[in-house]
Design goal:
about 60% helix, alpha+beta, 11 strands, five-stranded mixed beta sheet, elongated, two-stranded antiparallel ribbon
Length: about 475
Amino acid sequence: MHVSTERLRDGHTDGFIWRPRWFLLNRFFAVAGVFAAIAVSRLLFNLDAINYPMLLLLAFILLASNLGYVAYFHKAIPNEAARASQAESRLAVFTMVQINADLVILTLMLHFSGGATNPFVFYYFFHTMLASILLPKRLAYIEAVTAALLFCGMTLAEGTGIIRHYPLFSTALHARPVFITGICFALGSALLIAVYMASSIMDRLRVHQASLERALEETERLETEKSHFLNVVAHDLKSPVASIETMVTSMLAVYGDQIPPKARQVLDRIPVRTGELLRFIRELLDYSRVERLDGNAFPVEPVWLKPLVDGVIEMYAHQARSRNIAVGVQAESNTPNVAANRSLLEHVLANLVSNAVRYTPENGSINVGVHPGDGDVIIEVTDTGIGIPEEDLPHIFSEFFRAGNARKFTSTGTGLGLSITRSIVERFGGSIAVQSRLGAGTTFTVHLPAATGELDPRATPVAAPG
């Protein structure tokens, strides 16, 4: 099992939750808090018995250690994948060094500012809680015991006079055996209980996180298998269906006059139905190919939209004219090129325009607008067609989905076209949205990132899906 660099830096290894950037950032907030506490105790409360020079020295040591941790993290964390066990070991040691150093510095700060009578003894809990979150359970318990030993050692040494006590109050509470015993037992037991509770919660979170990751991996595996299955099935169906269409068309061309009228009517419907089936197969192939595309599967180039739009409009001009549908194009001259793949972008435009033609009744109109946006290019395809019911709008880009009125208007269609369109657009770093009113038409709006530089006329487009 291997763990990527991003997973080491931002995620976790098995049984080990790791958020280094978050931890390192919060350490600097802690340093700022230490300096603020020193200033407040000196200026506001005027606690003269505190050893301020040593506290300031410790604060600067804490700041310097934080800078060292940051430098080490960016230099020492591997740039390539590492074994999970090795990553867990290295990161655990790195975390324990930070927490143990903090515990020592905290103990020294308490010593120079009142010892066990300083209310900031509760800050030991922060470190034990962090250990419970960032480390495996056994290491969190070690950190809790370490904190308790440091605190009790300082308290006992001050109480017995081995080291000097810097009093916050006039009473000699720190030297009383009952106080020493009680405060050590209370803090030590509280730290262990805190670790137990936090570790129990983290265990549950780790189990839940592991189950979610397994579910995600299974989903990705099933998606891959589904795409592969669709590709294989569609590819295997395409040739025989095309052969059927060709044979029937040829037979009608040669023997059409000799076939009885009723049989001829049945045979005439076969090429129509096989044509619909071939279109469905092509869209299945398109879908599986687009789903398997990654960032390096297609070249991205500056694409000039105006001639591309004109070419797509020309593809459907005859179909539009046959139903007296007016088609217009408004492309602003200052529109920049888009960063996309020419053939895949043509596929997007063809899907949107063909849908507009298909679902616009006779004597309607379609308009394709292209204009610059805020750092991107906007393409709008607007029609005066049948529209989309409001309850169907959230599902319009879903796989195999067709609106209810679309199914009634025409029986042909796979429900894959818009899903493919959205997948392609999003792979270019763009977005697509739809606005529609039932019976009043639909507008699809595509945002694509603008390209820098001019269109290279020598660019060779790759084959579009299908």
